[in-house]
Amino acid sequence: MQINSIKSGFLQILIAICLFGYSFLSVASTHFPDLIGLSLEELLKIKVSVANRHPTPVRQAASSVTIFTAEQIQSYGLQTLEELLALVPGVQMNRSENGGGGFSASFRGRRADNGANRDILVLIDGARLNEPVEGGAMEQERQISLFNAQRVEVIRGPGSTLYGANAFLGVVNIITNKEENKLTLQGGNLSAKGAAFQTHFHWKKLQVALAGEYYADNGDHFPAFYEFWGVKEDTQDPALRKDIQLNIDYQKASLLFRRNEREYRDFVSQGAQLNGLQKQLKENQLLRLAYSFEWDDVVDEKENRLNIFAESQWGVSDYLTGLFPENPQPPIDPASGLYWTDGSLDALVGGNYREIRQHRIGIDGVEWLNQQHLINYGFSVRKESISRNPFQGNWDAQRLYTTGEYVPSPPEQFIQKGFWLNGERYDLFSPESRRVWGAYLQDSWHVNDQVQLTAGVRLDDYEEFSSNLSFRGGVIYQFNQHYWKLLLGEAFRAPTFIESKAGIASGGIANPALRPENVTTSELIWGVEKVNWSSQITLFKNHFSEVVVPVWVDDIVPGITAFQPQNLGSDSNMGIEFEWRWQVNEKFQLNIIGDRLVERLDSFQPVADSRLAATLMYDLDAWKFSGITRYVGKVSSRLADNGQTAIKLSDYWLTDLTTLWQVNSNMLLSFDLSNLFDEKTQHYTAQSGLEQGLPGRGREFLLKAEYRF
């Protein structure tokens, strides 16, 4: 961390506070209790459900947990899950080279370059969002919206004992709000515009909640920074998001339906940049039905419960990226077989179209043996499948099939499906499916008022490989205002379809013999909860085995070399995370979070050693002001090679401000300003030609009007 960078960061904080102070002097004074955020005492009383599958105070949860309430999400101007995760200790966010809208979340120093985010599991109202092809939730559904979030719970560390695969280094649980009636309109720079609504009604034992959001912008402008086959031009990163969610509850039965669409164009994607031709279109639908049985109340809020559920998820990905620009420089020889065989100079685009489905049924149970002894248990079966996924592009597919010649497609049928090489058809996937089942059992025992023991085990079985056993254990000791947690957990990450079942594409080839990755994590947590401040320090150590890395292999397909994922050895890392919250008075809150990698993984990981973030919130009757300042340390972009100096991306500070004004009991106005100082940020990508990083967006602002009814 350089001294000049530190000075710059503190200067930003000072300027932000001065701006707040100026605003304080110029506002009228009115009192609206609904605008005041939760006090520290109220925050500490919030119970988290993701760590124990049952509402549990944070200090008693056998995990490292961070919670965000709806008040915090709105006060900090957080729009998406990706923005929220940047404020979680131990989590680094990195813009991925994936259609302009992708971000990768690195939990505890691993895989910052994985846009699919396959190391973490994301749940919404109990339903899994992760899909089987890439393995993550944030590839198929990017920029997960928080417009109707009531609470977001984030676990750092393994969660496979309760949740199975993908709960490898973290679990995110989004709980939506079903009790709001409001309409929101917003607009800002970059031609941003959007609208959102939430409504609900009750009739006898029936409760219905409906919510929806639309958001679009034209993207930021980026001066030419990448050369694609001799062509270098300015670009932009437009984005479109559509979400709708329906919740129906009748007595003990519930229904959840979600549908969302994402569209991203231009920018840099998979090593290509062709404005106007590249696109990433995503569509997802999710249906969940559940019924709960409750019986034999032991004490208040400690009823025995059995939840039966069934889920279905459908997803479509329609993807095109540039293969060659129009009239590339230097020219490409048609005889090479890489370009139009008739000598055309048209741009060449290609990609794939895929459809996925997964269905899951199961039970989750809570059994209280007595007031201090809780048993969690469950069983689920899941079927994951993918249809034939053809390659598509602007070539004449019939001509390619019959003659083997690459000829541009006619304008009236610009994109066609099907790709042949030497008379043989190639698709990214043939129709594939697999069955997965898992069962878990966990015992939580409050030995006395000070000591709590937790132990759990889970067995998962996949068709492709042998069963996987995950263990979890922990001891929690509470004394006065202090608590200590000693935790040990195991998790696994199952091979995804793209790793084990895909055909050759984009220089990669699948490995049917791939085995699951495993991690064993030890954690020591010390927390303090005082009247007006609280803190938590976590020391963790991860040991990874059967680590999956890409290996360059020859002749998987005759005459073609490609990267193949293979299990190679083990690795480990260690780090420290901290959170500190200070309720200065009833009006002012200050939170500071940070993390530091003490021991890095041996394998190349483009993550910073240090991160720091500060959030502050000030209530002044009808006005609320908040600010976020976060620091990200230097990131290695390329290792030293052949005597050359290693390349490191610069560290940076980012500052965001949000102002809210409660006009009256129904109307709320807010102004969100992101990247206040228009800081230039560079994000890691492995793409050749982007050794100095991928640029992030500059300053953005949104003005929002919210009407409650």
UniProtKB/TrEMBL annotation:
Ubl conjugation among keywords: no
Subcellular locations according to the entry: Cell outer membrane
Membrane disposition: Multi-pass membrane protein
Xref: InterPro entries: Beta-barrel_TonB (IPR000531), Beta-barrel_TonB_sf (IPR036942), Plug_dom (IPR012910), Plug_dom_sf (IPR037066), TonB-dep_rcpt-like (IPR039426)
Xref: CDD domains: ligand_gated_channel
Ranges of residues in domain TonB-dependent receptor plug: 58-171
Record key words, sorted: Cell outer membrane, Membrane, Receptor, Signal, TonB box, Transmembrane, Transmembrane beta strand, Transport
Domain (TonB-dependent receptor-like beta-barrel): residue spans on this chain: 279-676
The organism's place on the tree of life at top rank: Bacteria
Keyword Calcium: no
Homology family: Belongs to the TonB-dependent receptor family. Hemoglobin/haptoglobin binding protein subfamily.
Protein name: TonB-dependent receptor
